[in-house]
Structures are given as C-alpha cells and as structure tokens.
Amino acid sequence: MEIGYWLFNNDMSTVSFDVREKGTVKSVRECILTIDGLPSGLNGQIVELKQGGRGMVTGFKENEVQVLVLNSKSPIRTGDEVFSRGESLHLPVGEAFLGRVVNGLCEPVDGRGAIAQNALYPVFRDAPGVMDRVPLKETLETGTLLINAVIPIARGQRELLIGDRLTGKSTVALDAILNQKGKDVICIYCCIGKTGSSLNKVLNLLCQKGAMEYSIVVNAVASCSMGEQYIAPYTAAMLGEYFMYNGKHVLVVFDDLTRHAWAYRQICLLLERAPGREAYPGDIFYIHSQLVERAAYLKPELGSGSMTFLPITEILQGDVTGFVSSNLISMTDGQIYFNITLFNKGIKPAIDFGLSVSRIGSKAQWPAMKALSERLKLEYIQYQELLQMTQLRTAGLSKEAEEKIKRGQVITQLLIQDKNKPLPMEGEIILLFCLSTGVLDTLPLEDLKKFKEGFIEKIKEWYPEVFNDLRTTHVLGDNSLEKLYEALGKYFGS
Is residue 125 flagged as an active site residue? Predict the structure, then answer.
C-alpha cells in the first residue's frame, strides 16, 4: 500500500509530497523479518522501521518480502509498520572519516560525535570495468622483508592471507598498515565477527603508532548484529572507493572473510534457502567475488587512484581445501600461507614459501629488490629439502651440504621479524645486499639480529644518500654499491 505525506514549512506553504510504501511485520525470526504489503520491493532496497532503524530486502515469498535487519533502536514485534521509498542503500563518505571508528552503517561508535560527510555512495557497487583499469605497476610496501622479497604485492592487487588460527595473519596485515605512514596511502581495517577485546588491541596499536591519522576502522565485532557483520566489508570497500576515485591509494584489510561467510550462512538459513556444501548457500562464491573485484588501479582519466585488498581467511589444521578458503584462493591474485609448524618453531612471520604465491606482484617489484631476491626462494627451498634429508644424520655431511645448511639458517634468521616493527623498503634491500655478499654467512646466528638493526642505522648515519637514491630510482647504482661496501668495511673494522 502506498501512503503519502504533505510536508510544510512554518508558514504552511507546501514543500513536497513524500510517497512511501507501507508494510506490516508478519513474523520475526532473529534478524529476518517477513513483511506483508511491500509489492514493489526489490532486492537490496532499504526498509525503514517505525521504531527507528533500517533493514534491507534480501528475499521473497509469495506476496511477502524478507528483510534483513541492519540496525534497530528497539525490539521489533509482529504487527509493527515498516516503510520503503524504493531506494538502495547509500551511506556517507568523506575525508572526515579518517581517524574514526564506525559501524557497518558508517555511524560513529568511538564516542567522538557526528562525522561530516562529503557525499553518499552506494554500498553495493559494480567493480570498475576492464577499460577503467591500468596494469599494476607500483609495489605496495608491506614492511615485511619476506613478502616484499619473495611474494611482492602490487597496488590494486588482491592478496589472500590464509592460515590456521593464531598464526600471525592479522599481525602481518597490521604491519602493512603501520608501514604506510608517510606514504600517502589511506588504510581501512574492517573487523568482522571477532571479539571486542581483539578490536581494542588493534585500536590501541594503531593509536600508539600514529596510524589512525590515515586510517578508518569498521567495527563489526561478534556482538554486532548479523546484518552489520554481513554489510561491513562492502561498507569498507565503499569508503575506500571514495578515496580511490579521488586519486588516492587505499589499502583495505578484511579480518576476516571466514567469519563473514559464517554470518551470511546463518542469514541464509534463517531465510530458508537451500543449503549446499558445508551448509553454505549457493551464492557464497558470488558475494565474495562481488567484493574482491572492487580492488583496482584506475586509469589516469579516472584519477589514477588504487585500492588494494588484503582479505584474511582462517582454515583448520592447514587444510586449504575448505569451501570458503578454496573459493577465495580462486578469486584473488595469490595467497600468503601461514604455517602453524613454523609458527610453533618461533619462525615469524610463519610464511610457507612453497604454498605462497603472488601472481602479478613481481611486475611491480623494485628492480633492486627483484635482482637481490631472485635466488632467495630457491636457496631457502633447497635448504628445507636438505634439512629433511639429513635430519637423522649427526655426522658425515659433505662440506657443500654444511655450507648450504648454514646458508639456509642465515636466510631464516634474516627473514625473522619482530611484530609491529615494519622495515622500510630501503633497509630490506640493504639487508639482502649484505646477504648476497656472503658476509652474513660468517656471522654467528645469535649476532645476526643485532647486525640487522645496527647496520641499517649506521647506513642512515654514514650514507643517508643511499636511502634517498633507492627511494628515488629503485635501483642500486654503482655509487650506492660502493658506499655499501665501504660501510661493511667500516662496520666490521676492515
């Protein structure tokens, strides 16, 4: 049924005529409402609740529509009225959102008052077309040596972080956010289905490191409604699109999409949709592909902005063949696999070389990094194979085998990195240069950590121009190489 209201000014002059469809709540099943009386309802349209709050049309029955409650200010009961203007969900965006914590509907939840908006953007938006994009050509500096060297990520890429629970996935993603300080990159951290205490730790870290200045946090923790948890990653992508279409570079972390899939599965079961594999609905692949395709690097005519996605997914006991994880692997540009065995050995970040890949990131790698890391992965894999072959032997190894094992141990220690201490790209290149000279092979393993920290600081003190040249040219020129050799001599007193 359609109803209309005349809206008047104070002088009783007519302003407009507001037309809305009115419906009635027929049944309530947790977060799903069955509504009678919205014959024009379409999928994705917003429904206003009489007591305050919004819902979204998500399903249909004969002469009825099903509505997912996004938020509600009071309990909803059978017989309550709802209204629809036939509009899709649009939420506010703008520069003022930087440094703020919002929920899935872009409402502030940090107690700092309202947020000024620049525009309204659609939450569900088509991804940029092929002709709107350019080939990925710039590296995203993650601050993690292993990733930048072996599994590089380009701006505009979608790189999946996958592994068991508590293996350091979120830590690596947060280090990438911390490393964007001073690099003119907007960061968005979307927390889905995790505990409130976990989110508080993230917020404290971002505040302590000064990262909130260029970051937005989308809060959809486990205590939030299913509707908010479902819509949160799309809201985060929408916030990123505002900056991308205004010529900025954006990094979005989804932590994590496994819990997002759980929320959507619960919603669909309440909608009485036929369950498929592992009880997930048939369109679970579509809802995630619809999301990750929104990452892009736009052509100059559209501002040359970019949006990079780091979705996180959790697996059980190293099984990457799960329904959600295998879907996400197939729709992203590579995956970084976190091995729980490595984590338990103290090798952090616990990234497995063999199962990790970046399909397009190498095209955007700095030439200096690419040249120095060419043999790194091969040498490390050879070391792991040799270690397995000789683990039962205590003596009788050849000199060549002993040298390879020592080399592998040095590489392992070089790649170990403390959490929340991202390295600049220039420092990573300098460390790999030192590795290539063989000088690190002569150091005791226990002295390697001290060398990593001390040598980079000495280069900054003695030859700051090396850092400047690397940042400008991305190449280790003859002049820089000469100064690095001089620095090694000075550091070791020879």
Answer: no
| Residue-number span of the structural domain to which 68 is assigned | 2-87
- Quick: pLDDT tens for 375-385: 888 888 888 88
d(CA 157, CA 379): 27
For the segment 229-245, what is each residue's pLDDT rounded down to a tens digit?
999 999 999 999 999 99
Last-in-domain residue among 87, 117, 135: 87
Q: Are residues 192 and 154 in the same domain?
A: yes
pLDDT in tens, 22-58: 999 999 999 999 999 888 888 999 999 988 889 999 9
Mean of the per-residue pLDDT values for the chain?
91
- Taking only the tens place, the pLDDT of each residue in 68-78 is 999 988 889 99
Same domain? For 75 and 193 the reply is no
End-to-end CA separation in angstroms for the chain: 89
The β-bridge relationship of strands 334-338 and 160-163 is parallel
Cα torsion 485, 487, 490, 494 to 10°: value is -10
Which of 125, 133, 273, 359 is an active site residue? 359
Q: Could you give the 3-state DSSP secondary structure of residue 154? A: strand
* pLDDT, tens only, 384-410: 888 877 776 656 678 888 888 889 999
Q: Which is nearest to 248 in space by CA: 311, 180, 202, 189?
A: 180
Whether pTM > 0.70 for this model: the answer is yes
Same domain, 165 and 287: yes
Same domain, 294 and 357: yes
Rounded CA-CA distance 215/211 in Å is 6
| Residue 242, both tokens | 């505002």
Mean pLDDT of 304-333: 94
57 and 112 inside one domain: no
Residues 222, 350: one domain?
Answer: yes
- Residue 352 and residue 407 in one domain: no
How does DSSP classify residue 298? B
Report the CATH number that the domain containing residue 80 is assigned in CATH.
Answer: 2.40.30.20
Three-state DSSP string of 225-279 = CHHHHHHHHHHHHHHHHHHHCCCCEEEEEEECHHHHHHHHHHHHHHCCCCCCHHH
Q: Number of folded domains in the chain?
A: 3
